[in-house]
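Module 6 notes. Inverse folding takes a fixed backbone as the condition and produces residue identities as the prediction. Think of it as a translation problem where the source language is geometry and the target language is the twenty amino acids. Below is one complete input and output pair. Work through it position by position during the lab.
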């Protein structure tokens, strides 16, 4: 697997986006994901992507993350061409999954999250995408 993007929680997506644009990143897509309670911007520079996440309300996963830990790195996402197989492999190894089944995420990709306790405190996202 390869790193697909770094997810960053922010209280101000527009201002965070302007800063990454100064680093050479450009907006690839901006989406409102109501079921996850976030406004998300995918920024791209070459093959690298950064996903900015701004909660739509305090009582959402990213809203609670910001309240507890403040703005900053929220998750690492890894690309896999077969997310169901990757999930089964992790589950068989004893990993604690947030999502037992893949669900639609940003850009229509199937995604699934693995609990931070599995990766030393880092929330891991699997994304079904071409490497
Ligand atoms: Co993500």
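Target side of the pair, the amino acids:
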């Amino acid at each position: 697997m390869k790193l697909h993007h770094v997810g960053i929680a922010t209280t101000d997506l527009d201002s965070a986006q302007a800063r990454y644009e100064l680093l050479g990143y450009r907006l690839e897509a901006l989406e409102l994901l109501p079921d996850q309670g976030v406004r998300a911007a995918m920024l791209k520079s070459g093959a690298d992507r950064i996903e900015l996440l701004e909660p739509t309300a305090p009582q959402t996963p990213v809203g609670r993350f910001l309240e507890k830990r403040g703005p900053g790195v929220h998750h690492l996402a890894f690309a896999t061409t077969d997310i169901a197989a990757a999930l089964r492999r992790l589950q068989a190894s004893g990993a604690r999954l947030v999502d037992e089944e893949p669900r639609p995420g940003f850009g229509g990709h199937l995604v699934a999250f693995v609990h931070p306790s599995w990766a030393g405190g880092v929330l891991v996202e699997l994304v079904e995408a071409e490497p």
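Reference fact for the lab report: The mean pLDDT is 95.
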